[in-house]
Amino acid sequence: xxxxxxxxxSSLLVVGTVVLFxxxxxxxxxxxxxxxxxxxxxxxxxxxxxxAQWFFRKQNIAAAEKWLGKIKNYEKxxxxxxxxxxxxxxxxxxxxxxPMQAEKFFKKALSLGLHMDHNIALxxxxxxxxxxxxxxxREAEKLLQEAKRADKNKLLADxxxxxxxxxxxxxxxxxxxxx
Length: 179
Hints:
Elements: H1 3-22, H2 26-44, H3 47-57, H4 61-69, H5 74-77, H6 80-97, H7 103-112, H8 117-133, H9 137-150, H10 157-178
Helix pairs in contact: 1-2, 3-4, 4-6, 6-7, 7-8, 8-9, 8-10, 9-10
């Protein structure tokens, strides 16, 4: 359902709730307020995205992918602020299956914009992993530094350190094989 339809339905619910209060139906009016709040929340936060994020946090990747699959045209169904998060979730799901294919989703998420610093750090850390797999060390180091800068609350500090350690092991292996 497009956002225009959601806005129209939510507005009609608000008008109906006002009418219920006008005629003294306080019980139904309070229920109408609750339903109107839920309807307006779905204007700004798509319910499929919310459910997919919930399943993703529960580590149920298959269910998260199913709910993301219900979003057919993300540009019409989601507000502009959610476009980057949609691609971030797709990238995280794709990185479970084929890490090299997830690069396009992470780049698209960063280009569309992510609002929270830890999500930017997560996208850059994931991209650094892809670059490491492609043996592009310089780009991976740059992305790791950017991820470290974006991770202000140190939520991904352990993963960043682990990635740097893997990069050091990769250097040792290349040195050993180059002799």
